[in-house]
Amino acid sequence: MGSAGQLAGAHPAARHVLAVIPARGGSKGVPAKNLAPVGGVPLVARAARECLAARLVTGVVVSTDDTAISAAARATRGTP
């Protein structure tokens, strides 16, 4: 086996890295935290955008129970 975290025989270009962003809708400490604007962009959208821009990330999933959070995350599709 290769270095830690590397599959034996796996070519570096063949790796798939999935970023999973948990974005719960019912925050008790800071209500609507994931929709709060940070630099004019909802927090969940900022997290998704950063993951999409990451060089090694090949896919991004936002896990949420809230339709508004889902819509904000989907709005980042195709945005580097």
UniProtKB/TrEMBL annotation:
This is Transferase. Keywords: Transferase. Pfam families: CTP_transf_3 (PF02348). One of its GO terms (molecular function) is N-acylneuraminate cytidylyltransferase activity. Transmembrane segments: none annotated. InterPro entries: CMP-NeuNAc_synthase, Cytidylyl_trans, Nucleotide-diphossugar_trans.
